[in-house]
UniProtKB/TrEMBL annotation:
Source organism (scientific name): Pseudomonas palleroniana
UniProt record, GO biological process: adenine salvage; AMP salvage; purine ribonucleoside salvage
Catalytic activities: AMP + diphosphate = 5-phospho-alpha-D-ribose 1-diphosphate + adenine
Name the UniProt record assigns to this protein: adenine phosphoribosyltransferase
Keywords for this protein: Cytoplasm, Glycosyltransferase, Purine salvage, Transferase
Annotated pathway: Purine metabolism; AMP biosynthesis via salvage pathway; AMP from adenine: step 1/1
């Protein structure tokens, strides 16, 4: 199957008012059901950054880990995982933040 950007966008499902009213959660799990679409998305990301000068890739909890690990592999960069407080047993760097 040949995909275009419309087909790929249709694999990212908006969930209105989740996890709370006023938030639109972008569910990317359907994208992972299509290896071809996932490869196109990841190749597009990699192509965008292959010439960029940076040293690491940072990925936020859950969904970011999925995308970030593939991208770090493709670009041969170290991956830094950003976790919620209390999720790791070792000493960590911490920074405050707010969610939606």
């Amino acid at each position: 199957m040949v995909f275009d950007s419309f087909d790929i966008k249709s694999l990212i499902r908006p969930v209105i008012d989740f996890p709370k009213p006023g938030v639109i959660f972008r569910d990317i799990t359907p994208l992972f059901q299509s290896p071809t679409a996932l490869r196109l998305v990841m190749d597009s990301f990699a192509h965008r950054y292959v010439e960029a000068e940076f040293t690491h890739i940072g990925a936020m909890d859950a969904r970011g880990f999925l995308i970030g690990s593939i991208l770090a592999y493709q670009l041969n960069k170290p991956l830094i995982l950003f976790r919620k407080q209390g999720k790791l047993p070792a000493d960590v760097l911490a920074e405050g933040y707010q969610t939606e």
